[in-house]
Design brief:
Layout lengths: L1 H7 L18 H25 L8 H16 L19 E2 L19 H4 L11 H14 L14 H18 L4 E2 H13 L10 H17 L10 H25 L10 H13 L17 H11 L7 H17 L2 H4 L2 H15 L5 H16 L4 H6 L1 H10 L3 H11 L5 H13 L5
Parallel strand pairs: 1-2
Helix pairs in contact: 1-3, 2-3, 3-8, 7-8, 7-9, 8-10, 9-10, 10-12, 11-12, 11-14, 12-14, 12-15, 14-15, 15-19, 18-19
Length: 434
Amino acid sequence: AVLIELTDANILAPTPRSIGDGSSFSGEEIERLRQRAKASSVLLSECLKITARNRVWEGKGDVVKAGTAIAGKWSASAPMNGNATELSEKCSWPLVLQKESRDDLFRGDNWFKLSKGKISDENDEAGSDDTSNVANEIDGQNSEDDTALDLSGENALGDDEQLNGEDAESDVEEFLGSQPVVFSGFCKVLLDQALRTGSNNSTEGVLPYKASALSGLSALLKSFVPAKDSEKYVEAVEHQRFIYDLVAPSLFSFVAENKPNNGKPVPPLLIARALECLASTMYDGVGADAGGAECADAVRLLKFFALSTGTKQPAWTVRQMSALAASSLVTNMPSGVLTKNEVITTVLQCSTQTLKDKKFWKVRLSGLELLLSLVSRVGNQKMSAVDSEKQLIMESILPYKEMIIDLARKSLADNEAQVTAAASKITLTIAWWP
């Protein structure tokens, strides 16, 4: 909880000016950035090593949340594919974005090529905490470097010995944070923790932990969204595509197959969180590969979401997240795919199904957000006049304008303020359409 509070307070994050315009920095600012980067690197490394273990214990979900929060603060300005930024040249960045490091958790360690026994516990969820094992491992590493500390006589140490102890602690910190965490490796660890089939969801603490792992993965993916006016936008989108290809197939299979675990179906909570992750990993141009896997085909993927928003799906959280995932897909799919008639009709089908839910307003809101993402692809009147792609999108949606207006107007009388606000945005967005 303390680490999360420090991260939320932007203590374990780059200095505010370090993510600005890249102008010159004073020596004091550089030193402050180095101190923050070092502390974040050490803590992130420890959080990740604990997360990668199989055994689940109370509080492990908080470790995941802390680790993803720290990583999320540094991902936006992290070095990409070995190209150091102006800031990363001044200090060692805690996180790197590298497509070549598919098998690395920490840069250059080949973590995922190691045997499973070397990177995880032999026992599963049952048993004692792993904290003692972590401490033993650190002690072992320190002893190998002849830097072990004798804490039993700490109070009896003289000034010189205390200084030596401080140097040893510094050596430990440098060892733990010596190599930056690889963004893709962190995503894979969280995915493995959440979707592993060897664990029993009925065991106390396992289901909440898996949900926390998926929530952490979603937050981590959302932390890296490049600005379209950025010089490295194309390279950043390519890295997003790499991450999508890495995690989306497993997420989609988990949601689509919904295989029973130990004779019981997968809890709707995990399905909803997996859909949230799938929505978070979508990038600009997703779904262009019509001949590829189902998760790479925007049309088939959208139809799958439509099935999950129907009345046959009993869990309202799954219906809500399916509509939100469809909204993310519509926002990011290529314009050439969006103009297809089957895409537009499927979007309207999803929205209509969610708006029939009279009990859960969040489901209705997700349907309106899907509609809003569709009409927002046209842009404003000035943009549509000069952009031929946006003009084509509007012409494709125009035959369904009256249906969209009807759905929005009916929602203006909703009892929930957020639903009426979304409906108002839709009517304002298409008010100028012919």
